[in-house]
Design goal:
Helix content is about 75%, strand content about 0%. It is mostly helical. The protein has 2 domains: about 100 residues; about 70 residues. Helix 2 packs antiparallel against helix 3 and helix 6 crosses helix 7. The chain starts with a helix and ends with a helix.
């Protein structure tokens, strides 16, 4: 895993260096193929090292969002990598036993703070791993969030779907 993390860091650093070197009005169409391939490799480790893969996916999500925040970033390569990193995160959570309340905190924080829709459907997709305790924690965090943040209605809808599915068993 350490080698894979180092390779991901290198690719992400190169992408960020490339993005930051461009002028204000330059368009940047980054190639996300290397990032995509490394995320595929990370997904293969999920069954044997779910906690490490989940942490790695969290890190890649954060770094990928930072790349997308460069206003000159165009194309689908990085947004596709962001989606794949979320899929790898989900697979790692399914393979392991993350703490439900800690997972709820990660999902809620990302969903509320991300400008890229990260974990917007978190409660629905992660309902099994969250269980009653995690869903309750997510509800608490969402209820205490600043009023009516962008996309908050979608978060409440996802939470309701997850709670309904969890109650149905």
């Amino acid at each position: 895993m350490a080698g894979l993390r180092a390779e991901l860091e290198e690719v992400l650093d190169e992408l960020e260096d490339e993005a930051s070197s461009l002028g204000l009005y330059d368009e940047w169409y980054p190639d996300g193929e290397a990032l995509d391939e490394l995320l595929d490799e990370a997904a293969e480790f999920a069954p044997d090292a779910p906690d490490a893969v989940r942490e790695l996916a969290d890190h890649v999500i954060t770094r990928t969002e930072r790349l997308l925040n460069y206003e000159n970033c165009y194309g689908e390569g990085i947004t596709e990598a962001l989606e794949k990193a979320q899929d790898v995160h989900l697979a790692a959570c399914q393979a392991g036993t993350p703490d439900p309340e800690v997972l709820a905190e990660r999902l809620a924080a990302s969903a509320l703070e991300s400008g890229w829709g990260v974990f917007r459907d978190g409660p629905a997709r992660y309902a099994r791993m969250l269980g009653a305790a995690g869903l309750a924690r997510y509800r608490e965090l969402l209820a205490n969030a600043p009023a009516r943040q962008h996309g908050q209605d979608a978060l409440w809808t996802s939470l309701h779907r997850a709670e309904t599915a969890h109650a149905a068993g």
